[in-house]
Amino acid sequence: MAIRRPAKPRPAATESDDVATDAFISGAPDSRQESPAERPKKVYPKKGRRIQRTITLTEDMLNKLDELAERTGQSRNALINVGILYVLNNGVGGVSNNGS
Known about the structure:
Elements: H1 15-26, E1 46-47, E2 50-51, H2 59-72, H3 76-90
Antiparallel strand pairs: 1-2
């Protein structure tokens, strides 16, 4: 068993520590509670008329998507767009895109 020095006691927090902590936290970019209208619009890389985004898929989903792309002669991206359009037009899980 190792011999260890006793831990030094921490000084009690002062009011100026609390003020400094609050200032630090309120200075964080995500500390403000903005409405969606107040948030700056995100800028994404463009490819022609389209905006490029990154998605995360499981390996199994990617394999199935690639198999379907090969069988149908469509690109992986085209199939992803078809799926997104289908959900936007028809809704998902009993929820339509028009809010009903």
